Amino acid sequence: MTAGKTRRTTALRTRTTAVGAIAVAGALLLTGCGDQTKDNGSGSGSGNDSEKTNTNSAPLADKLPADIRKAGVIKVGSDIAYAPVEFKDDSGKTVGIDPDLADAMGKQLGVKFEFENGTFDTLLGGLRSKRYDIAMSAMTDTKDRQEGVDSDTGKKVGEGVDFVDYFTAGVSIYTKKGDTQSIATWADLCGKKVVVQRGTVSHDLAKAEAKKCAKGKTMSIEAFDNDQQAQTRLRSGGADAGSSDFPVAAYAVKTSGGGKDFELVGEQVDAAPYGIAVAKSNTELRDAVKAALDAVIANGEYDKVIQKWGVTDGAVKEAAINGGK
């Protein structure tokens, strides 16, 4: 979600990859908007169907905790406004990389992954309070998140989480098309105004760079609840540049205004893994999710999803647990 980034705050999303040059496929022509309601009945194949999957035909069903296997549902906390990772299409259906992968894993586990919308910086709190079983939202796997540490203060703020890593992404800067103002690096943002999503690696990077700016060259940072709000501010001329995970920035560049609104500048930085967050106390669910992910990688479903969304450079060969740094 989450940049990605090396998101360093506890609730960060990073959404991040050594995605050398992910070409966002032409299939990514849908736009979406998030809300704060549970995504019920819109049928993305990601838990929006009230009918439970038959666990008898699922090869990995017995790996799930008994209560989840009985319920037939894994509750997923997600910021559903981060195209192309997860977003709502014009019909209100939840679509994207994460929902498609969740659908494929659900077939292995015999359950539905039911996506519930929330702001990115509240997802880990929702996981700790057991509102969600997992958080899947282009969230960068970092040591701070694993240990429950606030990256700004270095203080413990809650129980950490375990991550099942499933993708890799980096952070990019973009500007209005034709108005780059010679911005190519993070240092070039000194004396400028940048818009980001709150709690993301992009937000962390901006704050870190702002501390390095020379006197009289202050960087102004405006953080929003979601990336679409940040894009709107930049589009309207209210900022000089924006930053988000490379897949998200590339998607915005390709689709916003028919490709006429934005352009990428410079190189992406801070490549890191996206991880599915699971409570440290729930190792059985963590291991079941990892097994399901490995299964869809092995059977080719993973590659189909990654190719569909045009992000093949961020693909992984196998799932990993807590691979972030």
Automatic annotation (TrEMBL):
Keyword field contains Signal: yes
Top-level taxon in the UniProt lineage: Bacteria
One matching Pfam family: SBP_bac_3
Keyword set includes Signal: yes
Family matches, as InterPro entries: Solute-binding_3/MltF_N
Name under which the protein is recorded: ABC transporter substrate-binding protein
Region (Disordered): 36-61
Entries under SUPFAM superfamilies matching the protein: Periplasmic binding protein-like II (SSF53850)
Keywords from the UniProt entry: Signal
PROSITE patterns: PROKAR_LIPOPROTEIN
Residue ranges of domain Solute-binding protein family 3/N-terminal in the record: 73-313
